[in-house]
């Protein structure tokens, strides 16, 4: 019997990532090749005409799995009955804006949309926050939607994870599928810690497979992955969109359908204190997934250099949380 359609919300659907993500979801890259979908596309009123254009193109592409398209500028309507919510909508930082100005705007968006999700989405909705600051937006969403189980709210660091896999594969001269188990620890920002200590190339530890490249691993690999978003903005004049959309599909697909045996992926999830990282932050950890549930991989050995980098990115997340809470207090005053 054919599966019944799942409803997937994409916020900011008229934006760059939305435009790349909609066809990927409609083609089965997110929920699998046999899973029909109904897309719920949300954007703000000034983008309503562009949103209708996206809908027209989705119809014209005649995707076999696409069973319906809801477009809306009303969060309550867009969230109605959704099984998966990919939160891409928000304000990017513009020239002359302080970090706090962006944080203030996005925190208010995430607080409002948290309530819309809570009131209207499926009770088991799985939420992926992509919009920056992704980890802290996810945390604020969780705080404003207390009836959504906190484990159902995650932030995207899969793009960083994929970037790390690709860098190692290029260096080793192998297809990216041969590289496994890199880790992104912490924030989706330049303080993230891309860690190869437990990764493999064709089953061999990365450090062994890249013997002779110790200098590259120590001095080039980490900053390249940390700064890749900025490098793409510099090259394109726009932030990453196709790779972000593809990584959002990877994140949700692994979460719902599972990770391959012996492998893990990086996900921003609510810290339970694993590896000494503070509880109550949305922090990126190595995770395995099975049937819609993720678990943090336990028992990995952490050396002193790694521990310091993991602490530094947690410190930035703690500062972001304070800033976000301040913004919420100011907005309520
Ligand atoms: P964009 O500006 O092209 O699109 C954002 C869309 O959000 C626009 O269509 C805008 O109208 C819409 N929007 C604004 N406020 C909204 C609201 N309240 N409700 C619904 N929609 C709203 O930006 P983009 O390039 O698509 O990037 C989107 C976000 O993703 C940015 O915050 C960007 O920094 C972030 N990003 C994250 C990652 C990651 O790996 N986590 C990677 C790339 C980009
Ligand atoms: C990325 O990693 O490509 C983006 O988060 C960069 C950005 O600041 O939008």
Automatic annotation (TrEMBL):
Residues 157-325 form the Lactate/malate dehydrogenase C-terminal domain. Substrate binds at residues 93, 99, 132, 163. Residues 7-153 form the Lactate/malate dehydrogenase N-terminal domain. One of its GO terms (biological process) is malate metabolic process. NAD(+) binds at residues 12-18, 43, 106, 130-132. It catalyses: (S)-malate + NAD(+) = oxaloacetate + NADH + H(+). The active site is at 188 (proton acceptor). It holds the Pfam family Ldh_1_C. One of its GO terms (molecular function) is L-malate dehydrogenase (NAD+) activity. Belongs to the LDH/MDH superfamily. MDH type 2 family. This is Malate dehydrogenase. It comes from Raphidocelis subcapitata.
